[in-house]
Amino acid sequence: MKPATIGETWARMGSTLAGLMFLWAFIQQFIPYEFRRYVEKGINRLISFTNPYVKISIHEHMGDGLKRSEAYIAVESYLSTNTARKAKRLKAEMGKNNKLTLSMDDYEKLTDEYQGAKVWWSLNKIIRSGTGSTFHNPEPERRYYSLTFHKRYRELITESYLEHVMKEGKAMKERKRERKLYTNSPGYNWSSYKSTIWSHIAFEHPASFQTLAINSKQKQEIMDDLVAFSNGKDYYAKIGKAWKRGYLLYGPPGTGKSTMIAAMAKLLDYDVYDLELTAVKDNTELRKLLVEVTNKSILVIEDIDCSLDLTGQRKNDKAERLTEANVGEEKKSNDKEVKELKTNISKVTLSGLLNFIDGLWSSCGEERLIVFTTNYVGKLDPALIRRGRMDKHIKLSYCSFDAFKVLAKNYMGLESHPLFDCIQQLMNETKMTPADVAENLMPKSVCNDAETCLLNLIQALQEVKEEIEGPKVKENQEVIVNDISAKLNPSQTSKLVDD
Ligand SMILES: Nc1ncnc2c1ncn2[C@@H]1O[C@H](COP(=O)(O)OP(=O)(O)OP(=O)(O)O)[C@@H](O)[C@H]1O
Ligand SMILES: [Mg+2]
């Protein structure tokens, strides 16, 4: 008799195993559970002994289940390039620049080849039943990728292919990354199987350092500082400091503090975490939030003077007043309000915040900027803003002529105009925020041209000056403006005076 080939032997063993499995499936319903488990274990051992394939699982959530595993995310990105070409069932999601990104659908399989070795990837999920699911909180699903390959490639796959997948996947993720704006919104559902306690949207703010209207020297200095920080990994390691930097932006409302944060995020391609401190219950919750902040990000606390002590203090004061007035008819409603006020007071303390910015917790994660904004720098506790915590203090002030030129270029495409001299003179004598200047430069109707916008601005500047110095200024200024206007456009000569 002719000896069987290796292929035939495998085929025979496979069909015998399949027959045994079928038989087992039929008889197991008549066998007690304990015994069934024992037999199943034996069958699995037998299969793994005869099966020449190795399987590696990469789960989406590891350990405490809060954070998505980096390995899973890298595999997801790595496979996404193959997915569009090879997979038959795909999932589509809106990605960067409103482009659809495709990824494998659940239970789909893909093949890949690496240095002559063929591997199979599949996306599977485990559904945890019995956790009391509802319509709004469905059963939690745990996804995982399975990688299958022949055991003769074990070394190649575990030592080289997986490293290649991680490296390529991370690089692809970086290329496709879209910036995100995170918030710890108070109405957020803190369900245990959400992957993060922050909620986010895509961050597509149009502001950049090119459009930011501040003194050009100050702008260059800030940009250089930011770029040096983002390239400073080795430097921070050398000096033994956590790779983070604090910025305090202060100045009157409408001087561009929030706009600058958007410009910083665009320059460095960082995510923004907008921390609403008053919505954080206590220091423990603060720590939880901060541990979740990813690298390459800006953690922002806006209006820091209103966020911490002061708000808590004001609420405390009101609660105390209401408690004192607890007599007669009002007692019941006051009691309710006191209770509400007391439960809503954030128990985050200054020391809790400082501990995070500067203490041991500050070293978790790297390449992070922390930005505080305030209108009243004098109200802040000096401990909070001392150098080392807030390394760079940036004052944003009223609109200078230099800053006005940036706005004129952004809003009207103008680099020079005869009216600029008059505006420069007025700007030296008055104070107007960039937000107000920008508003005056916006056309108020479709037929408004650049010159009308500039005249509007001059009028607004005159009004501000008049408030400071009295009406005599206006008369003098009108003469100057009308002279220029008459030269520019005789038909509009008396526009300002008529207005
Ligand atoms: N320096 C600036 N450069 C360009 N635009 C500016 C600047 N300052 C203000 N603006 C414009 O004014 C608007 C308000 O500015 P922004 O919100 O950045 O001010 P802010 O300093 O954060 O104010 P607040 O203290 O009230 O939060 C922005 O939408 C922006 O268009
Ligand atoms: Mg702001």
Structure characterization notes:
With 499 residues, the chain is α/β, with parallel strands linked by helices. It folds into four domains: 1-51; 53-176, no CATH class; 199-308 and 346-395, 3-Layer(aba) Sandwich (Rossmann fold), CATH 3.40.50.300; 401-498, no CATH class. The protein has helices spanning 6-27, 33-50, 70-86, 154-176, 216-230, 233-239, 257-268, 283-292, 304-307, 309-324, 331-344, 350-358, 382-385, 401-412, 420-429, 434-441, 450-469, 472-488, 495-498; strands at residues 53-59, 90-94, 100-104, 109-114, 117-127, 141-150, 180-183, 199-202, 244-250, 271-274, 297-301, 368-374, 392-395. The strands form three sheets. It has a seven-stranded mixed beta sheet with strand order 8-7-10-11-12-9-13. A four-stranded antiparallel beta sheet has the order 1-6-5-4. Strand 10 (271-274), helix 8 (283-292) and strand 11 (297-301) form a beta-alpha-beta unit. Residues 212-214, 253-259, 375, 434-435, 438 line the site of adenosine-5'-triphosphate.
